[in-house]
Specification:
Structural class: alpha+beta
Mean pLDDT: 94
CATH class of the largest domain: Alpha Beta
Strand content: 25-35%
Distance between the termini: 23 Å
CATH topology of the largest domain: Purple Acid Phosphatase, chain A, domain 2
CATH superfamily of the largest domain: Alkaline phosphatase D (PhoD)
Low-confidence stretches: 9-15
Helix content: 10-25%
CATH architecture of the largest domain: 4-Layer Sandwich
Number of strands: 25
Bound molecules: fe (ii) ion
Radius of gyration: 22 Å
Strand order of the largest sheet: 5-2-1-11-10-9-22-23-24-25
Largest sheet: 10 strands, mixed
Shape: globular
Number of domains: 2
Number of helices: 9
């Protein structure tokens, strides 16, 4: 922690060196307004990111319609006395002057510092680390799990704590931005940019400005600069509740119009995050599924539950409640073929799990896998946007863990705005079925959760949810060792205040060889 704090003091304002005849974009002042970030950790490489944006709330970021050279440097120390790699790339207007460098030739299991220079200015310093060597046996790693950061619903104080925390990785499982606004009575601050009401009018410029406005939050920038991040997305990176090629708010005949919106959203997402240039989107398609090994201790598979998902069931039935969010008496639920991951990703994940030699196997996806249905007097009510609405796909995921038996699988998720510790069964709603794996879901960074009354109601009907609390915002720390994982749920009351202090809400432990978390 002391080292982390000492490092934070180095997270100083950038150096400015302007000549009197500086071009227009430099005359606007600070160029590295959106900070720096890193991700895609491998034993010998890491991706570092920045974007030049002297006027971040303009569509062009205040940059000229021309490419600009950017120098990058990676060093062993924060003062850049031991430089190990450097180079120059061109930041182009086509990529919103974003820079993604896949830095190779690094040593495994090491901390590195990085920075960028452009137009005589130097960026803040970022810190990152490489994964341990492939065959190594790390004795410990620490992960921060987070999701759902509605800018208007609370401050990003959670990120301030993670930035100062002793963690190796931040795993962010979706809803990085929200295009929606929260009602004024729940709002603590306003998005600087408003999206057009109609989804088909959302443009690349809207998404770029919106991503930039999130990055203007100093706590979010600090968290990116402090640790490498692994990411997957949920729906709000594009629009709320979209599934595959379909948007619940747009006519089904408008698939092409929606794919244009999705292409803009995916592109802006890539432009603002430390994702490998090899995964840059191609139109409305972008590869999210990826694998990251942490020596023999852990493997993380980032899984995409949105891009290849079938439409939510029973969208047109009158039994829908709350605008299709909740379903009851829906015969389509029983159709086994409906997909959450898509056939190709599903078989990839099954093969990866079956062949993995890692002690811990983390399936990194956006939402809650274990059942969270509501048992109401008038029948069983299902959340139409999660795994409960895709029971066939969930059974196939569980089968992939059951046959051949894959031990020590932990599903990580978010989306539901509550902390959850759960056990995962082969047949999820059958309490006689064996427990096969564990699930840890992080509450939101800021987005509002369900009431405690409804959460208790859900918990009482789903005995596999061992822990469930929706009243606090926060994140989860996973302290991973070869014999067990200590899980610490951190939280603060809603809405998150700028000066909030997080506390430990609950602790759980997952023992190696014993599926399911237990209260610690
Ligand atoms: Fe969310």
């Amino acid at each position: 922690m002391a080292a982390a704090l000492a490092w934070q003091q180095l997270f100083a304002p950038p150096v400015r060196a302007q000549s009197p005849d500086a071009p227009d974009w430099l005359a606007s002042g600070e160029v590295f307004t959106l900070g720096v970030a890193s991700g895609e950790v491998q034993p010998s490489s890491v991706v570092i990111w920045t974007r030049l944006a002297p006027r971040p709330l303009r569509a062009d970021g205040g940059m000229p319609a021309a490419a600009v050279p950017v120098r990058w440097t990676v060093a062993r120390d924060a003062r850049f006395e031991r430089i190990v790699a450097s180079g120059e790339v061109r930041a182009t207007p086509e990529a919103a002057h974003s820079v993604h460098v896949d830095v190779t030739g690094l040593l495994p299991g090491q901390t590195y510092h990085y920075r960028f220079e452009a137009g005589g200015q130097t960026s803040p310093v970022g810190r990152t680390r490489t994964a341990p060597a492939a065959e190594s046996q790390p004795t410990r790693m620490r992960v921060a799990l987070a999701s759902c950061q509605h800018y208007e619903a609370g401050y990003f104080t959670v990120h301030r704590e993670i930035a100062a925390a002793d963690v190796d990785l931040v795993v962010f499982v979706g809803d990085y931005i929200y295009t929606t606004e929260v009602p004024s009575y729940n709002r603590v601050r306003r998005h600087p940019h408003r999206f057009p009401d109609r989804h088909e009018r959302h443009t690349l410029a809207d998404y770029r400005i919106h991503h930039a406005s999130y990055k203007l939050d100093a706590d979010l920038r600090a968290c990116h600069a402090a640790h490498p991040w692994l990411l997957t997305w949920d729906d709000n990176e594009v629009v709320n509740d979209y599934t595959g090629d379909h948007d619940a708010d747009m006519d089904d005949d408008d698939v092409q119009a929606f794919l244009a919106v999705r292409a803009a959203a995916y592109r802006a997402y890539f432009e603002h995050l430390p994702i490998s240039p090899s995964r840059a989107p191609n139109g409305p398609r972008m590869l999210m599924q990826a694998r990251y090994d942490w020596g023999r201790l852990a493997t993380f598979w980032t899984v995409d539950t949105r891009q290849h998902r079938d439409p939510s069931p029973c969208r047109r039935l009158t039994q829908q409640l709350f605008n299709g969010k909740l379903l009851r008496d829906c015969p389509e639920l029983a159709e086994p073929a409906r997909q959450m991951l898509g056939a190709a990703q599903e078989s990839w994940l099954g093969w990866e799990l079956a062949s993995s030699m890692a002690a811990w196997k983390f399936v990194v996806q956006s939402t809650q896998v274990s059942p969270g249905t509501l048992r109401a007097p008038f029948g069983r009510v299902v959340y139409g946007d999660g795994w409960d609405a895709f029971p066939g796909a969930r059974e196939r995921l569980m089968q992939a863990i059951a046959q051949p038996r894959v031990p020590d699988v932990v599903c990580l998720g978010g989306d539901v705005h509550r902390h959850v510790a759960a056990q995962l069964r082969l047949h999820p709603e059958d309490l006689t079925s064996p427990v096969l794996a564990s699930e840890i879901v992080a509450t939101s960074v800021s987005s509002k959760g369900l009431s405690e009354v409804v959460t208790s109601w859900i918990k009482s009907g789903n005995p596999d949810m061992l822990h469930a609390r929706a009243d606090q915002r926060g994140y989860v720390v996973l302290d991973v060792t070869p014999s067990h994982i200590d899980v610490e749920f951190r939280g603060t009351p809603h809405p998150v205040r700028p000066d909030a202090r997080l506390r430990t809400q609950a602790r759980y432990r997952i023992d190696r060889g014993i599926p399911g978390p237990r209260r610690a």
